[in-house]
Amino acid sequence: MIDPLDASLKIAASGLEAQSARLRVVSENMANAQSTGRVAGAEPYRRKTISFASELDRANGVNLVRVNSVGADPTPFPIEHDPGNPAADASGDVKRPNVNLLLEMGDLREANRAYEADLQMMKQTRDLVAMTVDLLKGA
Question: What's the confidence (pLDDT) of residue 24?
Answer without folding.
Answer: 97
